[in-house]
Amino acid sequence: MTDNASITERRVQAVPLEEKVGQLFVAGFDGTEPTDDIEQLVSSHHLGGVIYFSRNIDSPGQVASLSDHLQTIAHDAGQPPLLIATDQEGGVVSRFDWGAQLPSQMALGATRDPDTLRTAGETVGEELASLGISMNFAPVLDVNNNPENPVIGVRSFGDDPDLVGELGAALASGFQSAGVAACGKHFPGHGDTETDSHRSLPVVPHDRDRLEAVEFVPFRRAIDAGIDALMTTHIAFPAITGDETLPATLSEDVLTGILREEFGFDGLLVSDCLEMNAISETVGTAEGAVQALNAGCDIVLVSHSPERQRDAIERVVAAVESGEIPESRIDSAFERVQRYKRQQFGDGRTGSGDWQAAVEQSRTVARELARESVTVVRDRTETVPFDTSEPIHFVGFAGSAQSDAEDDRYDPADLLASLAQHDVEVHFHQIVDPAGYDHPFDGGEQVAVATYHARSNPEQERVVSEIADAGTELAVVSVRDPYDLAAFPDVSTYLTSYGYSPAMLDALADVLLGRTEGSGTLPVTIPGVE
C-alpha cells in the first residue's frame, strides 16, 4: 500500500512548510472508524501520526482495518505513512484488554527479570505490529519514590533508579526488536510528585545532584541502550530552569541543553499531550506547541479536540512564517521524523504478522511474569495458602481509575472468577459503600480481603481492622498498589499483585490456593512498615 517514493529522502528545503509542520503532529480522535476531522487533518494539514486510546479499539480485526484505512487516507493524499502510536504499558494503562496486556510495570519490577522482560517486549511488539501500530508509548522510566504519587505508582518499575533503568531498557529493546519504536517516559521524571499533570502543573524542587542520582538514571540507561524515542513531562524543574511555572516540555534548557547536548540523545523527542491542564490551562495548547517545538520536541501530541489540533498546527505555521520559530528548528525535527519513518516504512510495510500467533505468545509470557511477581510481603501466621477443603470468603471493595491516564476496568468480581476456576467453595462479599458495611464473621473463617487504594479510604481501613479483630484467618491483598499496607501495618498476612490484569488475578488466586508460591520481591519501600 505504501509507495516508497513518498518517504524517500528529499532535500528538506524543497518540502513546503505546511507539510513539514503537519508531519510533527500526532492527533487522536473518537470512535473505531476515522472521523471526518481526522481525515481532514491527514489530507489537508499533512498530519504525521495518530494515537489510539481505548475509545478507538474494539477487536483485533477492527484495529488492523482501522490502521489500514488511515494509511490509505495518507497514501491517497500523497503523504508519508502515518506513525500510529498507543500506550500499551501493561497493568492499569493497557489500551488493548483483549491482547497484549502485561502485568503492571511495578509487578515486572517485582520479578527483577530483565531477560523475560525483553522477551515480553518482543511478543507485545509483534502483536502491536500485526495491528499496524508502529510506536508504543512505553516503558515508563519514572522512579516512583513518592507513595502519594497519583498518576505513576504501579506504572513504575519501582523506587530503585538502577532497577528501573535496567528493566526499562530490557522492555524497550524487546519492543524495538519487533519493529515497534519504544518511547520512554516522562523525562525528566514524574515519579516524585503528588500532583497529576493531567490536572495541574506539578513542581519537583530537587537540586541537580539529586536529579542526577535518581530521576535521570533510567533515562541515561535507556539512551545508552538505543531507545528510539523519549516523551517529555509537563512538570516544572526550577533547579534546571530557574522557573517554577515552566513545564519541562517547554524548556530548551531541559530538552536541548540536557537531553540533546549533555546526554547525546538523537532519537525522537515527543511531547506528552498538550491538552493536559498543565499546558492547556496555562499557556494554552496552540502556544504550547510553539514553545515545545522551540524547546526541542520533534513531535507534539494533541490527543482529543479537532479544533485544538487544527489551531495548534496553524499556529506553528504562522510562528515559523513570522520568525518566532526558526525554520531550521522545524527542519531538524522534520528530518528526524522522516528518518524514523524511512526506518519503519522504507520497505513499504505498514503492518505485518499474524495477530493470533503473536497474542498467544504474549499471553504466555504475561502468565509467566505474573506468577513471578505476586509478592507475599508477610505471612506471620502462615495463613496462605488457604485450606481448599473449607469455604473461603472473599471481600472485595469497588475501585475506579486514579488518573486520567488509566483505563477504568477494575471489578472485584474478576478476582472471584479467578478463584472460582478451582475446586473450592467461595463466598463473595462485594462492598460498594464501606461506610455502611458490617462484616458477618464470628471467628475462624478463611477470609481474603482485596483492598483498592485503601490509604485514601479510611472506611476500607476500618473494615479490614474489624475483620482482623474478629479472629478470622485473614489475608489482605492489595490489587492496586502495595502502599496500602501502610493503612494497616499490623496485619499478619499481606500480599500484593500490583494490578488487576487477567494474568495477574489468576496468579494471585493460585498463590492464595497453594497452586504456586508468591515469589516476587517488593520493588518499593512502604513508609512506616518494616
UniProtKB/TrEMBL annotation:
Instruction: Fetch the Gene3D superfamilies from UniProt.
Output: Glycoside hydrolase family 3 C-terminal domain (3.40.50.1700), Glycoside hydrolase, family 3, N-terminal domain (3.20.20.300)
Query: Which GO molecular-function terms appear in the entry?
Result: hydrolase activity, hydrolyzing O-glycosyl compounds
**Could you confirm whether the keyword Hydrolase appears in this record?**
yes
Pfam families assigned to the protein according to its UniProt record, in alphabetical order: Glyco_hydro_3, Glyco_hydro_3_C
Could you list this entry's UniProt keywords, alphabetically sorted.
Glycosidase, Hydrolase
Give an example GO biological process: peptidoglycan turnover
Q: Where is the Glycoside hydrolase family 3 N-terminal domain?
A: 17-339
Q: Which domain of life is it from?
A: Archaea
For the keyword Hydrolase, the answer is: yes
Return the similarity comment. Belongs to the glycosyl hydrolase 3 family.
What PANTHER family does the record point to? BETA-HEXOSAMINIDASE-RELATED, GLYCOSIDE HYDROLASE FAMILY 3 DOMAIN PROTEIN
Q: What is this protein called?
A: Beta-D-glucosidase
Organism, scientific name: Haloferax elongans ATCC BAA-1513
What is the phylogenetic placement of the source species in the record? Answer: Archaea, Methanobacteriati, Methanobacteriota, Stenosarchaea group, Halobacteria
